[in-house]
Every structure is written in structure tokens, then in C-alpha cells.
Specification:
This protein is an alpha+beta fold. About 15% of the residues lie in helices and about 30% in strands. The protein has two domains: about 1-30; about 30-190, Jelly Rolls (Sandwich). Strands 1, 2, 4, 7 and 9 form a five-stranded antiparallel beta sheet that branches. The N and C termini lie far apart (about 85 Å).
Length: about 200
């Protein structure tokens, strides 16, 4: 009888242990960046030790370049691999994350440089779900959009979404490239609006 009770007790402990391990595996206590990259897969590039920290006024590059420039490591879903002239957006949406945004007293200015545009539609940019307007089609020159500081919540996070109206597959026009492309972006910068 004692062996039977011990076996039931051991079985109960094992079952409880397995459920505890399953619960912990389902809800691990990890950093937001770790969760975004390894669990949710909402980041397409590992941002390293600095995470998604935002340094205002620093230009980040999405292309390969010489390697001396600061690479943009805040890329969410919707980006293809880096090329010499930048990165193409993938499909209908591409995302950038800034976390945390430093304390600011004025609006933010998001500056970007486009090196190629294949979509025949508009590309809208949203900041934390609020439309800022459409991207300028100017090539190889910096263009800017204003981000009202009220959009930055108490969590100090900023999610920029490029919404591509009509991405294009070059393979539909005889090319061997089957990717869904919208626009190629070379550089990005977030800065506080200068005082007048």
C-alpha cells in the first residue's frame, strides 16, 4: 500500500512539474527585445546590446555601405536583406521600432532617403497607428515628416509603419525576381524639431 501511495504522489509531483515547465515555457520572463525577436518574430534583425534605443539626430543606414556607418537595427517585419543602396520593403507593410524615445519638448522629425521606388501606389507612414501622410517620391535626397510629440505615449515607444498601397513583383514583368517590392530606403534619422 505504501508503494502505491508513493507512486501516486510521485506521479502527481511529475504532472505538476510538467505543467509548471509548460507554463514557464509559454510565458518566459525575458526582455521586450528578446521576446520581439525570438518569440513573436516582430523584429527581423537582432538589435544587439543596445536594443531599440533611440539616439536623436543620428543617421542610421539600411544598406551595406562601407561598414563605417551606423546600421539600422530597429527593423520589424517587412524588410528584405540589405543591399548596396538600401533595403526594399517587403509586401504591403514594413515596420521600424524606437524604444525608448528620450524625453522631448518639441515634435520629432523623421528623415529618410529613398534610393528606388517600384510601387505605382502611395506609401503611407503611420506613427503609433496615426497617419503622418505619404512618403515623398524624391530620390537620393533626404525627405522629412513631422511626428507630433503627443503621439509618443507614456511608454516612450514609437512604431513607424510604412503601408505600401501596391507592392510589385518584378517577376510579373519578365524578371526572375519574385520578391514583393515597394520602396528602397537607404537611411533614416529621428530628431527633435529645432527651435525657431
Amino acid at each position: 500500500m505504501k508503494k502505491k501511495v508513493a507512486a501516486y504522489f510521485l506521479s502527481a509531483v511529475l504532472v505538476f512539474g510538467y505543467f509548471a515547465i509548460l507554463w514557464w515555457a509559454r510565458t518566459p520572463e525575458v526582455s521586450d527585445v528578446y521576446r520581439m525577436y525570438f518569440i513573436d518574430h516582430s523584429l527581423s534583425v537582432w538589435p544587439g546590446d543596445t536594443g531599440l534605443n533611440c539616439e536623436l539626430g543620428i543617421t542610421e543606414y539600411l544598406g551595406t555601405h562601407s561598414g563605417e556607418e551606423k546600421m539600422a537595427l530597429r527593423l520589424g517585419r517587412g524588410w528584405y536583406d540589405a543591399e548596396d543602396e538600401g533595403r526594399w520593403t517587403k509586401g504591403g507593410e514594413a515596420v521600424l521600432f524606437y524604444d525608448p524615445i528620450p524625453e522631448i519638448s518639441r515634435d520629432l522629425i523623421f528623415t529618410y532617403t529613398i534610393t528606388n521606388w517600384i510601387s505605382d501606389g502611395e506609401i503611407e507612414i503611420l506613427a503609433n497607428g496615426i497617419s503622418l501622410g505619404t512618403l515623398s517620391r524624391e530620390m537620393d535626397q533626404p525627405s522629412s515628416l513631422k511626428i507630433p510629440r503627443e503621439i509618443i505615449g507614456e511608454d516612450r515607444r514609437l512604431e513607424l509603419v510604412f503601408s505600401i498601397e501596391r507592392p510589385v513583383r518584378p517577376s510579373d514583368f519578365g524578371s526572375s525576381d519574385a520578391r514583393e517590392l515597394g520602396v528602397m530606403i537607404d537611411s533614416i534619422q529621428l530628431d527633435e524639431e529645432k527651435a525657431e
